[in-house]
Design brief:
- By secondary structure, this protein is mainly α.
- It folds into 2 domains: 34 residues, no CATH class; 73 residues.
- Helix content is 61%, strand content 0%.
- Helix 4 packs parallel to helix 6 and helix 5 crosses helix 6.
- It is elongated, with a radius of gyration of 26 Å.
Amino acid sequence: MNLLAQKRKMPNYNRNYSVEEFQELLEKYQELIDIRDRVVALTGEEKFDRIISALDNRISIEKKFTCPPHFTLGVTPSKKEGIIETWDKLILDLINQGIREESISHLASKMNDMKDIYEALDFVRERKNLPLGSKHEKTFKRSFQ
């Protein structure tokens, strides 16, 4: 390679850059700021490692509580999608209420045993007034002794 060809490949560090060259980068940076603000609002955490931990925890909880397959047997694809969305909303509502993971597991296993999503919805509506797993969890005495 001759010296002239080498000069053409070398970047020119002495040139002046215009703002337009960085506009796309600034737009992407603004998108990241908006996403971070929403994630902070979702998790309630500010520090990066705590945000990641909260998101990982939320993902593992959501994976653990997937919609039971017998709820969606024999239904059209659009109804199947609606049933899965309803199930996910039920689980997220329980998570957002601050219920302990053990209590959510217990409720989800009971809902898994039901024959359809409508029974699960009725079950959750009946239980809504009972503060299961909350910090001020009540104990109920058996009335049938």
